[in-house]
Amino acid sequence: MVTPPIPPAEDANNALNPDSLKGVPITAFPKWVKCPACDLIAPLDIGVFALKEDPYHPDKTRFVHSNCDKVTGGPPPVLPVRFVRSCNNGHLDDFPWRDFVCGRNSGCNGALRLYEFGVSAQADDIVVKCGTCQKSSPMTVAFSEAGKALIGKCRGKHPHLGIQEKCDEESKSMLAGASVAARHCAFGPGARWQLSLPVDHVGGLSLIFRALAGGGALLAGGTTTGETHRSLVATQLRRLLDGDETPDLQCLLLGGGPIVAPLRQAALEAGLPLVVSYGLTETGAMVTASAPDDPPELLTHPHYAGRLLVPGTVAVSDDGIVQIKGPMLCQAMADDDGVPRSPTLTDGWLSTGDLGRLEGDRLFVTGRRDNVMISGGEKLAAEELEAALLALDGVLEAVVVPVDDVEFGQRPGAFLRWAAGQERSLEEIRRELEDRLASWKMPMALWPLPDHVGFKPDRAALTRLANPR
Ligand SMILES: [Zn+2]
Ligand SMILES: [Zn+2]
Ligand SMILES: [Zn+2]
Q1: Which residues are placed with Cβ below 5 angstroms of ligand 3, an ion?
Q2: pLDDT tens-digit map of 282-292
Q3: Cross-strand partners of 415
């Protein structure tokens, strides 16, 4: 038996001292932080920033800018900088700030300041300047061809695991789309976002990025203490509204697919601070979100997906498909075998496969192109029939899929989840839908919706179920 290692008494509070790594070890990343008062950016380990411990509230322990000359009432807490670099193999590293501003191997060690203008959080509104050599560089350079050369080869780091390996990939700048989202939702220090979505889904994963970018905290394990923000998909919102819980929130972010009008209406009537949004796995975060001054009639519009968070990043093609462009597009996504595959872009635009339209900077998404079936030569969007079904009493979930039909080509069939004791027959449902839907849009079959793993039903699997070969 040996006694456990006890850190030496002096310096025990220094998080950078390896001896003090007790409990669950965490690593500060990015190492570069910014003082929001004087705009200074520097690595945590050069002694400019001090760890301010709160022994009674460990969650309030943070790094502060001890000798900040811009603040009189105590040293301001610092925030992680919002730019890092990464490679296609998934390595993460600090952005090479010194080389980027003063030039490669310049030997300059002047104080660097990162100035942000405007509120868009876009790269062209951000400039970094050195106080000694007086050189400065806008962040747009980091995303240009010149910037690529400057950022150079990947150093193969996994900062959160503390390991380094050999890597031959180019390193690229990453502006977390999350930082725009965090700012839009006012998710900064003091705010708490419940980790209400699975982290193997982009909705949950982006919460982690958003916390890193904005400085807010995440609540895991179902805790709701001090909760200010929550993300939900349609099914979860319905459960919330049906339950007894009345959360006191600043932001209830909806996403992950269509949200029908009655559900939006019920959420507003329950006094929930609804924010509707739109994004893809490929964008890592939302690209549109509703604004606080959007009127209720817009928020309850079944297709309204919010306003562009960054101008010029969303367009709609002539055939009505939503297109996305910009630094928030991912470099690659791993396929089932773990091989990174870059998304196919046309002139930099990613075609989303979602049908929509823009009205000024407001996006309306009407459905997935893949969910449009052709019935007797007419186009029918699954979402339209799903919305009609969800408006009926006792229908909790509805998924409409095309069913091959000799006469019509395809006809809609519906998988429904019923509230207890409310099940009804196909004939009854068709009668209830009579004055809302043309006869050719009516479901030709009903099935009970099988329990699904995850929070969204697998549309492709249900289509196969409805069309046995
Ligand atoms: Zn400062
Ligand atoms: Zn310099
Ligand atoms: Zn790498």
Answers
A1: 87, 89, 91, 154, 156, 167, 169
A2: 887 788 999 88
A3: 399, 447
